[in-house]
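USER: Please consider what follows.
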Amino acid sequence: MPPRLPILLFPLSLLLCSCEAEEEHLYTFKEPHMGTEFTLRIYAEQGSVEDLTLLSRRVFDRVAELNQIFSDYLPESEVNDLARAPVGEAIPVSDDLFRIFDLAKQLSGETNEAFDITSGPLIRLWRMSRKNQKLPTPDQIARARARTGSDLLDLDPVERTVTKRAEGMLFDLGGIAKGYAADEALTMLKDAGYPRSLVAASGDIVVGDAPPGKAGWKIGIETLEVGAALKDLETVTIVNRAISTSADTRRYFEHEGVRYSHIVSTETGLGLTDRIGASVIAPNATTSDSHATAVTLLGEKEGLQFIENKREIECRIVALHDGQEVATRTDGFTRFQQEKAEKEGPLPAP
C-alpha cells in the first residue's frame, strides 16, 4: 500500500447502496491510494469495459500524482519540499498545491484556526506521544505551536508562490486532500462522457448524476458504534454532491482514565477527549472533507453554528452524552435524509 497521508480525522465509513441498472451496466474499479482504497463506480453501456479500464487507469494515475504532491509521508513530495524551503523566500508551487493551500487558509480564518494545515508540528508531537503512551509536556506543545498558524503563510495568487514566516513549519493536508483527489477523479469521469459516476475515498464520497431509474445515490452513514447493523443506519440520497464523515471512532489511546483521540486540537495540542462525528454534504468533496474535519474540531455546538451560516452546505453531528449517541442536524440536512437503510442495502462501500 502506498504511504498514507496523515489525517487529522479518521473518517467513519460511508456505506453505499447497491443499485440495479436496466439500460446501463455498473462498472467498478478499485485501487489503494492515499492510505485508503479509491473506488470508481461508473454507469455505461454494456461492452464499455475496455474503454473504462483505460479511463480508470488515467484517473488512478491522477490520484497518485496528487499523492506525490500532498503526502507528507513521501520524503520528496512537493509539500515536503516546501517544508524544507528557506524561510522568507517566495516559493513557486504547483496549481494543485496552491489551490489547496488557498482554500485551507480561508477555512483557517473562518474557524479561528481550528482547521489548520500548518498544524504538522502538533500532529507529529501527538503521534510520538501516542506511540510512547504518554502526554506531551506543556513546553513541547508550546514549541510546536510556535511553528503553526495560517498567519505564518503568505500566498501570492498572481505569482502562485508560498512564503513561510517561521522555521520548522510542517504541513498536514489530511483533512482536505482525499476530498480534493476525489473531485479531480469525478471531473475526469464526467469529462470523458460518464456523468452517472461515483468516486469513494474512505469517508469521502462524491457523485454525479443519479443512477438510471433512481432519485440519486443512496449513502448510509455509520454511527459512532463501529459495525452497527445496516438496518439501523441513517441514509441520505444525493445527486451531483459530496458527503464526508469524520470521527474519532477507531484510533485513540487512554491515559490515566482519559480517552484521547488521534484527532489533534490546535487549541490544546492534545487529542480530543469528547466523542464526536460529523457528516457534511456539500457541492464538492474538497468542501465536504475539509468542513467535516472543521466541524469535528470545533465541537458540537460551535460546529453546527458554523455550518448553519454556510450556503449549500449541510451537516449531521453525532456526539456521545452519558453513553448515548445524540444527533443534531442543520435544517437542510433532512432534505437529503431517509429514515432507515433498507435491509437489502446499503452495502459496504467498496
